[in-house]
Amino acid sequence: MLEYQEYLTHRKWMNHALKLAQLAGDAGEVPVGAVIVDTDNRLIAVGENRKERDQDPTAHAEIVAIRAASQILQTWRLHQCTLYVTLEPCPMCAGAIVHGRLGKLIYGVDDTKTGAIRTVINIPDHPASNHRIKVLGGILESECREQLQSWFFSQRRQRK
User: Fold this and answer.
1) Is 93 within any annotated ligand binding site?
2) How many CB atoms lie within 10 A of CB 102?
3) How far apart, in whole angstroms, are the C-alpha atoms of residue 38 and residue 115?
4) Tens digit of each residue's pLDDT, the chain (160 residues)
5) 144 is in an annotated binding site
6) Could you give the angle at the alpha carbon of 114 between the alpha carbons of 75 and 23, nearest 5°?
7) Residue of 3, 62, 143, 146 marked active site
8) Nearest to 102 by CA among 69, 125, 133
9) Does residue 95 contact residue 62 with C-beta atoms inside 8 Å?
10) Bridge-partner residues for 35, per DSSP?
11) In sequence order, what DSSP letters do the residues of 122-152 get, joined into one string?
C-alpha cells in the first residue's frame, strides 16, 4: 500500500508526463510522455514520443528521456532514478529500462497489445534480465487511458 505522500508525488510526476504526452499528440505523435526524477524527486529529464517528427523508430518517450538523463548525469547507470511514463513500455523500452538500470518504473495505463512490463510479457522479471526494477502501474490510469483513446478516436475521424 502506498503512503499518501508517495501517492501524491506519483500523481505530480504522472501529471507532468501527461502534459508531455499532450504535446506529442498535438504534434501528430501517439500521445505518450515520460519523466525521469532522482531520489530527491528533482526533475532530471523528460521525453515525449518523437517517431514521426524525427523519423526514428526508437524515438519513444521512454528512450528520449533515458538518453537525456544519461547525458545529463554522465552515466548510463540510472539506478538512482525513477521513470514515469503514461503507457506501459513496449519490449524495446522495457529492454532499455532494464539495461539502463533504472531504480523504479511508474506507469499509467496497461498496454494490452505490446505491454512488456506486466500485461503481455514481463521483461523486467524474466530470468534473462540482468537487473530487477521496482514497478508500479495504474497511477492516473483513467486519465492516461482517456488521453490515448481520445487521440486515437480523433485520428480515425480525420482519416474518414
Assistant:
1) yes
2) 24
3) 25
4) 679 999 999 999 999 999 999 999 999 999 999 999 999 999 999 999 999 999 999 999 999 999 999 999 999 999 999 999 999 999 999 999 999 999 999 999 999 999 999 999 999 999 989 899 999 999 999 999 999 999 999 886 676 5
5) no
6) 65
7) 62
8) 133
9) no
10) 46, 84
11) -STTSTT-S---EEEE-TTHHHHHHHHHHHH
62 carries an active-site annotation: yes
If one counts every other C-beta atom within 10 angstroms of the C-beta of residue 74, the result is 6
10 appears as a binding residue in the annotation: no
Handedness of CA 119, 17, 49, 46 (dihedral sign): negative
Single-letter amino acid, residue 31: P
SS3 readout for 55-84: CCCCCCHHHHHHHHHHHHHCCCCCCCCEEE
Check: pTM over 0.85? Answer yes or no: yes
**Which triple of cell numbers denotes residue 55?**
523519423
Neighbouring CB atoms inside 10 A of 129's CB total 16
For the chain, list the domains and their CATH numbers: 4-159 (3.40.140.10)
